[in-house]
Amino acid sequence: MKTRSIWHNLRRGYGIVNRLTPTYIPLTFVSSFINAVQPLMILFLSAQIINELAGARDTSRIILYAALAVGLAFVLSAANAAVSRRVTTLNSTLWARFYFFLGNRYMQLNYDQVEDTMNNEKLADIEAKTNGNGLGLLRLHYSLPELLQPIFELIASIVLFFGMFTAVSSYEKSFITSPFATVLLIILVLLILPFTYVLKKREERIQQTVFEENPKSNTYVHFFNEYMKAKNAAKDIRLYKQASAIEEHYNKSVGAEFWYRIFDLIGKNNALAAAVNAVLGGCVYLFIGLRALYGMYPLGSVVQYIGAVSGAVGALAKLVSVLGNFITNNQYLGQFFDYLDLPDNMRENKGNRPIPQGDLEFEFRDVSFRYPGADNYAIKHLSMKFNIGQRLAVVGLNGSGKTTMIKLLCRLYEPTEGVITLNNIDIREYNYSAYMGVFSVVFQDFKLYSFSLGHNVAASESYDAELAKESLILAGFGSKLNNMTGGLHTFLHKDFSDDGVEISGGEAQKVALARALYKNAPFVVLDEPTAALDPIAEFEIYSRFNELISNKTAIFVSHRLSSCKFCHDIAVFHEGRLIQRGSHDELITDRGGKYAELWNAQAQYYVGA
Ligand SMILES: Nc1ncnc2c1ncn2[C@@H]1O[C@H](COP(=O)(O)OP(=O)(O)OP(=O)(O)O)[C@@H](O)[C@H]1O
C-alpha cells in the first residue's frame, strides 16, 4: 500500500465526501455549532438567573434572561431541526452514492484489472470494512459532526469558564484560591489527552492484529453474502445440497470470535474512559465547590463553571478519540485510494489516433500472451491477418486460445510479446474508446440487464426503436417480440419491474446477437453464437448469416464444425497456436490434420444417428 500522509488522505477524503453529498459539510458545520453552543448558552443564562436570584433580584433582568433562554432555545432548536433533517437525508443517501462511486470506478478499470483476483479482493475488502466496521470514506463522513461538535464545545466552554481564573477571593489566601491550584486543575484536565490517545492506540493495535490474523475475513463475508444469493448459483446450491457445505465453510473462515474481540475491546475502552471522566469530573466539582466556599464564585457562576469545565473535559476526550479514529482509519482510507488509483495502463500514455475511415485491416504479428500470474502462454507466436469483409471461422479444442485471441484483438488485454496492428499501425496507438467502437462482440458469457428489452438491444436508455426491432427480427427474436405486450418497453427479469419477463438461454442469446447488430460496428465477433439455440434457430441464423453481417468483417468461433462450413476461411487453434488455415474443403483433405480429426469425431455422432 502506498503511504500517504494523514492530512493528504483527509483532504482528499473530504473532497470526495463533498462531491458525493455537496451540502453535507456546510450543513454539518451549522448543526454541530448549534448542538455544541445551545446547551452552553442555556447554561450561561441559567447561571445569570441564579446569580440574580442570589444577589440583586432584579425582576426585569431575570425576565430578560429567561426570555432570552426560551427565545434562543426556540430559534436554535427550529434551525437545528431544519438542518438536521437535511443532514439525516444526506446521511442515508451517502452510502448509496458511495457504493455507486466504488462500482463506477470498477466499471472504468481496465479489463485485465477486473480479472485480477487481487483487485477483486481489494474491492471486497473495502466494501466489507465499510459495511461491517464503518471504516474508510464513510468513517470520514460520519465522523465530521463528531469532530466539529467538540471543537465548538471546547471553544464555547473556555469562554464560559474563563472567568474562573480571573476571579479573586475576598477571604484569606489559601492553596485552593491560589493560581497553583488552577494550574493543577488544568494539568489534571489535560491528562485526559494522553490517556484517551493511549486507549485509541491500543484499540487500533488490537484491531489491526485481529484483521491481520484473519486476513480475508471481510472478503469471505462479502463473497458468501453474494454467493448465497446469486441467482445463477441457486439451482446448483439446491441440487448439490450446498447450503450446509457453505455454512461450514463460512463458520470456518469467518469466526464470530473475530468480531467479538474487536467489540469486546471497544466496550472495555469506553468503560475505562467513562470511569476516568467521572473521576476527573469529581475533582472539578470539588475544586469549584471549595473555591465557592472561599467566596471566589457566586452561586450562579458555580453552576456555570462546573457545566463549562465538564463540557470542556468531555469535548477534549471526544476530540482526542475522534482524532485517534482518524489515525486508525488512515490505513483504510489508504486502501480505498489505492483502489481508486489503480493505474490506467490501457488508456493513459497511449496514442490518441482516430480510427481510420474506410477499410480496416487487422493483423497479429508474432503475438504471444500469458495471463497475469499464469505460468503458461495462452497464445503462442500467433501471426494472422483478418481479410477485410470476410468471414473467418475459428475452431479448436477447449482452452486452445480462441477467446483469448478475441480479447487481445478487442484490446481487453495487451500482448505479452508481438504486436497487433490496424492498417499497419500498432492498435495501442489508437484512441482506446474509439477503438472499442470498432467491434460488435457477442461473448460466450454475455450479460443482459434487468432493463427494458429496447435498452438491452441499444445498450442505452434512448434508442432508435425501428433499428432495435429490425435487429431483434434479424437475430430471430421477432415472434417472441410480437408476443410481448410491452414490446421494446418490456423489462427483462423481474428485478426492476413486476411485469418483467424471464427469457430462455437461447432467447437471451438472440437478444445479445441483436445488441451486436444494433451497434452496427465494422467488425463483428461471435463467440459460440448459436450454442444455446435450437436447431431451427441455428439453421435460420446461418442461412441468413450474410444478411446479418452484410459487408462487415466477421469472426465466428464455434465448436460445431458443420456450422463453420459456410465460412470460406477457417482457422484451427491448438494449444495457443494457429496450426491450420483454409477452407473446409482444403482442410478436410489434410487427413492427418487437427481439423479432419475434429470433423470426423463430430461426424461420427451424426452418422451413427
Ligand atoms: N482469465 C484467465 N486467467 C488465466 N488463464 C486463463 C484465463 N482465461 C483463460 N485462461 C486460460 O487460457 C487458455 C485459453 O483459454 P481460452 O478461453 O482462450 O480458450 P478457448 O479456446 O476459448 O476455450 P473454449 O473453447 O473452452 O471457450 C486456457 O488454458 C485457460 O485456462
TrEMBL record:
InterPro entries: AAA+_ATPase, ABC1_TM_dom, ABC1_TM_sf, ABC_transporter-like_ATP-bd, ABC_transporter-like_CS, P-loop_NTPase, Type_1_exporter. It is a multi-pass membrane protein. The chain crosses the membrane at residues 21-50, 62-83, 147-168, 180-199, 271-293, 305-327. It is found in: Cell membrane. CDD domains: ABCC_MRP_Like. Keywords: ATP-binding, Membrane, Nucleotide-binding, Transmembrane, Transmembrane helix. Residues 362-600 form the ABC transporter domain. Pfam families: ABC_tran. GO terms for molecular function: ATP binding. Its main location: membrane. The keyword Phosphoprotein does not apply. Residues 27-328 form the ABC transmembrane type-1 domain. It comes from the Bacteria. This is ABC transporter ATP-binding protein.
